[in-house]
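User: ok so my PI wants both of these folded by tonight, can you help

Assistant: No problem, let's get them done. Here's the first:
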Amino acid sequence: MERHDIELKQREDSIINVSSEEAYCMNFHLNLKFDYKGKQYEATAYYQNGYGIDDIDIWDNEFEMLDENMHDELYPQVRGYFEDMDISEKTITW
């Protein structure tokens, strides 16, 4: 083998060859703004990959947590919306 070929072979042997790559995200922070009976609300939750929706908080547009009755009224709809939320390139903020 000529010197040039040997150097080329050594260079090729020192470079990694990637067979696959993946970015894995364990958690997503979800946000939801909505109107209900003429009032604005916001909700947040966490989606844990493989475990589902967790830690849902709901508050009104004055940033006050809801009383128990209103929370109980909104919670099933908010949870359902979060569970059906399409997490894709269009909805992810990087």
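One down. Here's the second:
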Amino acid sequence: MAKAKTNASNGPTTVDPKEMSKKELDTKRKEISNYYEENIPSLKIQLEYEELLRDIEKTRAERLQAQMFIAQTMAPEPSAEDDTPVPNMPGEMRIDPKTMSGQEAAAQIKRTLKKQD
């Protein structure tokens, strides 16, 4: 709803645009157009800023993807024969972990808490 001008004693009232005169409608349209025209330069600057941010993020993602590709390409492929043993844990297990259940393996690991000062 648009607000129409009224005298000071009555205060502002809302008027249906159908009840406004052609002159009042034209004035209102010009006010709205002027408002948008005044804000277009700042919005263009904001758009340019957002586009630059987008481009920076895209470039970072592409660089990260390229680094990951190079790292995967340069890494040696694990061979099927490679049966590298897992580094020994404190309180080395005496039983082959491949043959025991998870519960038995957990029982083999002795956990101790460190005393804090």
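Residues 1-74 form one domain. The chain has a mean pLDDT of 76. Good luck tonight!
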